[in-house]
Write a structure and sequence with these properties.
Elements (H helix, E strand, L loop, with lengths): L2 E3 L9 H19 L5 E3 L2 E6 L2 E9 L6 E9 L2 H9 L11 H4 L7 E8 L5 H17 L6 H11 L7 H10 L3 H13 L7 E2 L2 E2 H14 L1
Helix pairs in contact: 1-4, 2-6, 5-6, 6-7, 7-8
Length: 216
Amino acid sequence: MMTKVHAQLAVAASPKQRRPYARELERAFQNLGKDFGWRGIQGILFKEINQWFVTCHLETSLLSQQTSLIVSTKPMAIDPIFWGICGFPENKDKPLSFRALGAWTCPALEMVSADVAEAADASDTATTALNMASELLGTGTPPSLAWFEAECRKAWEHQPAILASIISTLVATERRREALELCLEAKARGETGGFVNAGDSFVQAAIRRLQTSLSA
């Protein structure tokens, strides 16, 4: 399910040359994304596919002629659980785009990172990237909660905030005790879970909520 495809060499360039192209490419990517069923905000495309929230965006180097397509996903079910734990249940009423850009949201998991063949016309490059995203999302086995949890655990060491996605997935699959044990382990290591509000961390909030739930 995880796909990383990158070229070995990229032609060097200067930021002065690349910035106008990068800006034009971001605009084209967002504008043309509508034709592929995406909605866009601040250069990020997003949509819901079969109860999964999916985003894609482009990373364009300013030092070389290289652009990468990044596709990420997370279950639609986990953000409301996360917001409940953190005390922000009202966030469930926010627009779908909030799940992509909101500060207090579960991190998505990167599924695809692949180089995009650049064309002189940024619109052509954007179209190539959008076709790649459609092809990648239209093939292969659909994601599962078990896959998502396993991949998030692999990413946890280098992405501390993804613990929120792991815990919320465990709760979504009725594994609250396992979620509590994981939070207690994280607390013992001094981890916050990547989210802190008024001195209260996600890990602390999750422990309280899970202990209350399990003792009910």
